[in-house]
Amino acid sequence: MPTLLNIQSSPRGLNSISRSLSHDFVTAWQTRHPDGKIVLRDLAEDTLPYVGVPWITGIFLPSDKHTPEMQRALAVSDELIAELLSADEILIGTPMYNFTVPANLKAWIDLIVRPRVTHSGPPERKGLVLGKTCKIIIASGGTYDQGLPAAASDYESGYLKRILAFIGITEVEVILAGNTAAVSFGSTTVEEHSAQFRPAVLASAR
Ligand SMILES: Cc1cc2nc3c(=O)[nH]c(=O)nc-3n(C[C@H](O)[C@H](O)[C@H](O)COP(=O)(O)O)c2cc1C
């Protein structure tokens, strides 16, 4: 029974294009895996803490040396990592904010990238999260497809691929759902806009 971890970060609920395309992905995935389990991690609903001194100090100490403050900080990180490790596939549905990931997704990344837990740290610097695939749907107001001048400003897809590879997830597909500004400014509808990306989304939900 495969498990899909569905990570969503847009705060825009039903108006969100990354959520709408992610919904199409999840529906197709469920059809292909009728016995599959889907775990939702909604980063817009559950506000994650930023990493601070108790977390940063705690990750380098054995658990019997953890203060109650460190235990609390690490418990959140432990929960997110356990969720990640128990998934076979990961879906990340996210907006582009200021050319990169939204702060809530960055907070999740900071909590799951952990030496000796999700990567070995030096000297090997090997990822420890193995055997997983990740599909990423990025909604953006502009268009950043390869070959366009704006592609150089997409600091999100390359960053996500790099950080996922760092922890061992190298099988990653990114769907860039650009030009959502056309929906915001009323020159097209969500339905028309989504129709351009749906074939790629459905194909990726294997
Ligand atoms: C704070 C903020 C920053 C944004 N920055 C960018 C950006 O750098 N590039 C871009 O193309 N669109 C940008 N946008 C537009 C969003 O990427 C676009 O509205 C997208 O559809 C949001 O995803 P969602 O529909 O899933 O909520 C920004 C929107 C907000 C609210």
Mean pLDDT: 97
Arrangement of strands in the largest sheet: 2-1-3-4-5
Structural class: alpha/beta
CATH topology (fold) name: Rossmann fold
Number of strands: 5
**CATH class assignment:** Alpha Beta
Description of the structure:
With 206 residues, the chain is α/β, with parallel strands linked by helices. It has one domain (3-204): Flavodoxin domain (Rossmann fold, 3-Layer(aba) Sandwich), CATH 3.40.50. It has seven helices and five strands. It has helices spanning 17-32, 53-58, 68-85, 103-112, 157-166, 181-184, 190-204; strands at residues 3-8, 37-42, 89-95, 133-139, 171-177. It has a five-stranded parallel sheet with strand order 2-1-3-4-5, sandwiched between helices. α1 (17-32) packs parallel to α7 (190-204). The two termini are 14 Å apart. The model has no long low-confidence stretch (mean pLDDT 97). Residues 10, 12, 16-19, 95-99, 139-142, 180 line the site of flavin mononucleotide.
Summarize the structure.
The protein has 206 residues and is of the alpha/beta class.
Q: What's the arrangement of secondary structure elements?
A:
Elements: E1 3-8, H1 17-32, E2 37-42, H2 53-58, H3 68-85, E3 89-95, H4 103-112, E4 133-139, H5 157-166, E5 171-177, H6 181-184, H7 190-204
Bound molecules: flavin mononucleotide.
